[in-house]
Design goal:
With 366 residues, this protein is an alpha/beta fold. The chain contains 15 helices and 15 strands. The protein has a seven-stranded mixed β-sheet with strand order 4-3-5-6-8-7-13, sandwiched between helices.
């Protein structure tokens, strides 16, 4: 089942801006915003490998629409940080062609909604060429930029493309949550020989997360295809990615006050999907709720639930799995309606209660 949100989006955004979330197992040494973590990753990889270059709208002299590429044009010059015309089909095609030729382009879409203009290059050229060339032509290109809902930008600028792109073989699809996710995964994406779709979140760009000394180092790289356990628990598994991880963590905190300990699993990678970690968690908790900002039909949660049904993990469940997702409508422009279309912690708590039924009362008494 899919649930939609009820509280006001503005309150969620306010909480995000005021809070600092730790995702590191080590003691944090410095708070770093997601924006700056991405900037560090680009800078370090451009220093490490001169075949890496960045192209997109306003990435150079303007320092990027969201300032992710701040300072890179001044440091690396016109040949490696390239402002393009407003023509996604053009510069995405250039990026793919450059990857064919042995370079490592990082192609920024000002928003992934605009990647629809270039989807033929992403799907038919980037994703399929290695296979169709019998392995002779690798395509080491990264398509990155903000994904999903921002605030007040209406239906044509508020889609989550996680399910869209993770549907396609030949692509790797990453969705970072924290600053450590952003830095470690972007560095891994740039080094990877395959095309990578890197889905960031505009709302998270300015949020500071503590980063460990290890994560601040130049050689910090996270593995692609490995989920992260954000919070351990024993009653219920919450599977999420990107900004939905914050939603799940807030819900887990509330449920802990009721005696229910949730295990929060941040996927980080949608394709390849770390199903082993999901199965291991279900073997412990025996209950599953998925959380995502995208639409419910054919979504990430639907894929996870299907895989559970088709695997031995199904026999670990003590209750049906539930999905918490965005509403099954185009994103409204009005703020009050926009809030109703996005999942909130209250939605996750309601889903958890539905799955656990009377176990919540039992847990509170333990």
């Amino acid at each position: 089942m899919a649930l939609k949100s009820t509280p006001v989006l503005f309150g969620l955004l306010t909480r995000l801006s005021r809070r600092t979330f730790s995702t590191s197992n080590a003691l944090a040494s410095k708070p770093v915003t997601v924006r700056d973590a991405l900037n560090q990753a680009l800078d370090e990889e451009m220093t490490r490998d001169e075949t890496v270059f960045l192209l997109g709208e306003e990435v150079a002299q303007y320092d990027g629409a969201y300032k992710v590429s701040r300072g890179l044009w001044k440091k690396y010059g016109d040949k490696r940080v390239i402002d393009t015309p407003i023509t996604e089909a053009g510069f995405a095609g250039i990026a793919v062609g450059a990857a064919f030729a042995g370079l490592r382009p990082v192609c920024e879409f000002m928003t992934f909604n605009f990647s629809m203009q270039a989807i033929d290059h992403v799907i038919n050229s980037a994703a399929k060429t290695f296979y169709m060339s019998a392995g002779a032509v690798p395509v080491p290109v990264v398509f990155r930029g903000p994904n999903g809902a921002a605030a007040g930008v209406a239906a044509q600028h508020s889609q989550c493309f996680g399910a869209w792109y993770s549907h396609c073989p030949g692509l790797k699809v990453l969705m970072p949550y924290s600053s450590e996710d952003a830095k470690g995964l972007l560095k891994a994406a740039i080094r990877d020989p395959d095309p990578v779709v890197f889905l960031e979140d505009e709302i998270l760009y300015g949020v500071p997360f503590p980063m460990s000394d290890e994560a601040l180092a130049d050689d910090f790289v996270l593995p692609i295809g490995k989920a992260k356990l954000e919070r351990a628990g024993r009653h219920l598994t919450l599977v999420c990615a990107g900004r939905a991880t914050d939603t799940a963590l807030q819900a887990a905190t509330q449920l802990a006050g009721e005696g229910v300990e949730c295990e929060v699993l941040n996927l980080r990678s949608l394709r390849p999907l770390d199903f082993d970690s999901i199965a291991q968690s279900l073997a412990k908790t025996h209950h599953l709720v998925t959380v995502e900002q995208g639409w419910p039909q054919s979504g990430i949660g639907a894929e996870i639930c299907a895989r559970v049904m088709e695997s031995p993990a199904f026999f670990e469940l003590d209750a049906p799995a539930w999905r918490v997702s965005g509403a099954d409508v185009p994103m409204p422009y009005a703020r009050s309606l926009e809030a109703l279309a996005l999942p909130t912690p209250a939605d996750v708590v309601a889903a958890a209660r539905a799955v656990l039924a009377n176990r919540i009362t039992q847990g509170a008494q333990q």
